Each structure stands twice: as structure tokens, then as C-alpha cells.
Amino acid sequence: MRIKRRCLLAILATLVAPPVWPAAETIPWSALSAQEREVLGPFQDRWETLSPERQQRLRRGAARWRNLDEAQRQQFEQRYEKWKALTPQQRQEIRRHFQRFRALPPSEQQRILSARKRFRNLPPAERQRLLEKFRDMTPEQRQRLQRELRRKRRQRLERLRRGNAPPGAGGQQSQSE
User: What is the pLDDT of residue 108?
Assistant: First the structure.
């Protein structure tokens, strides 16, 4: 009985006691490299008040920024301007969608990214036509369309597995390969 009580007390103590490992410490502004200070300049006034985790994320972002070419930097700046123009509700909605996407299995993420790429590669007029058609649908019509697309995708995958995909299905190798 006494041993059980000691074990319970030890377990309880570990649950209640603060962690024995040191918490991550903030990084002084002066410890940043000249390149990091240049990129992170807008954060200088409040750098010391940022959490260590936030400082690390910003440092990783600064490292990525330094590796971008000029065209990539301009593209990023354009996206950032669009982001700043969004309402807080729109930003929250985007964050929620991103979290849902990240929770998907990698194969599903890849499928979505591939479909997005195919859509983006369509001629602008075709993209616009499809967007308008989708916007004009009722929620029930959208659900029906999604079910039909999933059904067709399963059929296409099954044909690919059996080796008798129709021409242009994407899984068939050409004679020259």
C-alpha cells in the first residue's frame, strides 16, 4: 500500500511540476546576422518581445527570402499585398482551409495540387467559364457534380489498374517511351 502511494505521488508530482528542461530563450537582436537584421528590420522595435518560437519562424522565413530570386520576391510581395487587403474573417477562413488541407494524407494533398495545376494551366477563358458555371450551381448541384467526379475518378483508376485505360487517360505510355 505504501509503495502504491509513493508511486502515485511521484506520478502526480511529475504532472504538476514545471518541466525540468529549459524553455527556449529569446534571441537578442544583436545576435542576428547582418543579412537577418536587414530582412527582419520591420520587427526590430518589438523583436525582444516576440516569443522564441515566433523569432525562429521569422528567422527561417528570412533564410528562405534570401534564397529567392527577384521574380519570386516580387510574386511574394504581390501575394502579401493581397493578403493585407483581406478582411480578418477572410484571413481566418483561408487559415482554416489551409489547416484542413495540411490534415489530409499526402496522396490527397498531391491530388488536389495536381488538379489545381491543371486548372491554372487552362486558357483564361476556359477557367472563367468553369468558375461561372460552378458559381451558378445550387449546393445540391455542386454535391452531385462532386459525387460524379469522384465516381469517374474511381472508374479511371480501376481501368488504369487493369491496364486498359482509354486514350488520353494519363496512365497509358506512348510507343516512344
Answer: 87
92-133 pLDDT, tens per residue? Answer: 999 999 999 999 889 889 989 999 999 999 999 999 999 999
Phi, psi (5° rounding) for residue 167?
A: -55, 140
Q: Are 73 and 65 in contact (CB under 8 A)?
A: yes
Which cell numbers in the block locate residue 50?
A: 516576440
Residue 46 CA neighbour count, 13 Å, CB half: 6
Residue extents of the structural domains in the chain: 128-160
With a threshold of 0.85, does the pTM exceed it?
no
Q: What are phi and psi of 11, to 5 degrees?
A: -65, -45
Q: Are 59 and 32 in contact (CB under 8 A)?
A: yes
Measured torsion, CA atoms of residues 69, 71, 76, 81, in degrees rounded to the nearest 10: 140
